[in-house]
Amino acid sequence: MGRGFDILSRKWSLDFDALDYDGDGLLSRADMEGLVESTRVAFGPEGDPVKFAEFRSASLRWWDRFLAPADGDRDGYVTRDEYVAAYREVDLATMSAALIAFVDAIFDFVDTDADGRIGIGEFAALQRAWNASREDAMTVFESLDVDGSGHLSRGELHMYVQQYYTSPDPDALGNNLNFRF
Ligand SMILES: [Ca+2]
Ligand SMILES: [Ca+2]
Ligand SMILES: [Ca+2]
């Protein structure tokens, strides 16, 4: 196990914290449902109900396909060790292809003004739903918006998400997606 795996394991572990919505140190389908509901609330009337339904089903599909199987001892909860171990074993190319479909469902819901880009306000609302402070959300956004356009494109987000989950590079910009990094 090389240093690259250390960085990936650290990112997956931070991802675990982001997904543990109720903060009990375990992941369950209820955490995913809590995050989805929190996202709906964060966007309020701006959120499109049809896109929300797609985002919700993509989230639960993600849980059922990639997270539930990580529950090695089948007790209904995924521990941090189970979570990181599952990422170590999964085929990262297959996983990241499925992840992009999930990211697209998030993108479509979060892009409330439907201009095909994520603006800083849209990004901050999403981060708020995921328990980041406004300052953390701004720091993350500014680090990712390298050309300072005030927007993230779908392609940029795909690249950052793939870097976050699959790149062992400690300096990959996508590492900043999780404000805890
Ligand atoms: Ca939990
Ligand atoms: Ca378990
Ligand atoms: Ca937008």
From TrEMBL:
SUPFAM superfamilies: EF-hand. Residues 132-167 form the EF-hand domain. PROSITE patterns: EF_HAND_1, EF_HAND_2. InterPro entries: EF-hand-dom_pair, EF_Hand_1_Ca_BS, EF_hand_dom. GO terms for molecular function: calcium ion binding. Gene3D superfamilies: EF-hand. This is Ca2+-binding EF-hand superfamily protein. The lineage of its organism: Bacteria, Bacillati, Actinomycetota, Actinomycetes, Pseudonocardiales.
